[in-house]
Design brief:
single chain, about 140 residues, mainly beta, four-stranded antiparallel beta sheet, about 45% strand
Length: about 140
């Protein structure tokens, strides 16, 4: 069987545990996604911006259910804002359709299987799920 292909590999890595591919400026500002336009805090650019692997752990800020969607993704699905332990707030898909998760709930990144590519290659997507057990700290 073919190895699953990660959707959007420029943003996430398939490591264990999976992580986000962000960046850090010489001024200390941490951002996601990795980009070369310049630091939002100090304006630094070029070699002042470096890649930084961001742990996929944080706290839920807010979430919303999308009931109607014109794209390829079947509704309903949940979008959440996660304040990462490493700094930035990211918007991402959550696993499941439960919006009863309270703000402040611990969340962790996970890889989930999604519809295979047209050529039949299995695919996985990066999403956030409520933390369980040892992930709660």
């Amino acid at each position: 069987m073919a190895e699953p292909r990660l959707l959007m590999p420029q943003l996430y890595d398939g490591g264990s545990p999976p992580a986000l591919q962000g960046g850090v400026c010489d001024c200390g500002h941490v951002f996601f996604p990795l980009q070369a336009y310049g630091c939002e805090r100090c304006g630094g650019h070029g070699t002042r911006l470096r890649p930084k692997r961001l742990a996929a752990r944080g706290r839920l800020v807010a979430s919303a259910v999308v009931h109607l969607h014109a794209g390829e993704r079947p509704a309903p699905f949940v979008v959440g804002a996660i304040a990462l332990d490493d700094g930035p707030v990211v918007r991402t898909l959550l696993t499941g359709t439960d919006v009863s998760l309270p703000p402040g709930c611990r969340m962790v990144g996970t890889l989930v299987p999604v519809t295979p590519a047209q050529d039949g290659t299995p695919r996985v997507d990066f999403r956030f799920a409520p933390a369980m057990g040892s992930d709660l700290s």
